[in-house]
Amino acid sequence: MTRVLTALKLACLEIVRNRTALLLILVLPGLFETLIYVTTPNRVVSFDLPSLGAEESIDVSARAEAFVFMAVVAVAFIAGFAGLTLMQGSIRAQKRLVLNGFPIYQLFLSRLLALLLLIALVSVYTGCIVEAIIHSDRFAGIVTGLALTGAVYGAYGLLIGALWKRSLESVLSIVLLTNIDVGWLQNPIFYTEATNRAVIHYLPGYFPSQVAMVSAFTEASIANATLRAALYFLVLLLTAGAFAYRKLRAFA
User: Fold this and answer.
1) Into how many domains does the chain fold?
2) pLDDT averaged over consecutive 10-residue blocks of the chain (252 residues)?
């Protein structure tokens, strides 16, 4: 347990010392929401939420919808980059710990704990910004959706960090999927008019974004979407762990 705490401390220090990560954490949620407030009209829009299980349209302010949508995007970006930073740091710098007798699973566990702690803080912080603006009755549900988004994309960041050695491929992998998935296809307004919707359902941001949107604008249950998002996170996490173990075991 002491070794896990030591590795966790080192993982947290990596984040604190990373100026880009700190900038994303502190600035991105507020910047995105400010841009939405300045540029998005307050007219009413209608869109579908497929996880409700019925062809039911939701009528809300375009600005309110955009606030929740961009909160999901911000958390996904932050978590993806944080996961990437922690994993690549684990593979490069933490080889010394493996040589000094640290079990690989403890290193990975410390990275995971640091990532989940960061995701929890960012989700609450971003959720508070959204809540202050839209005054939802289900604040906890919105934070749950943001946290699930962070967990899924954080695990994706861990996986990319374990797969690629160079920063260029890693950063592009994070930016491209985040932009295409939560930054575009998961927007309920786009989804309502989309064809081949089944493709969107298989993307990592689908279930977490549904949890956030359903919580923000309806009283419907989020249990099913929450469970499926958690399963998506678990699959990505186990895959990332397998690749990380494969890279580090040579030094054990």
Assistant:
1) 1
2) 63 70 84 92 90 78 95 95 82 59 72 90 95 93 97 96 84 94 94 89 96 94 95 96 78 54
Say what the pTM is.
0.91
Joined together, the tokens standing for residue 65 give 């919808």
**Domain extent at residue 174:** 2-251
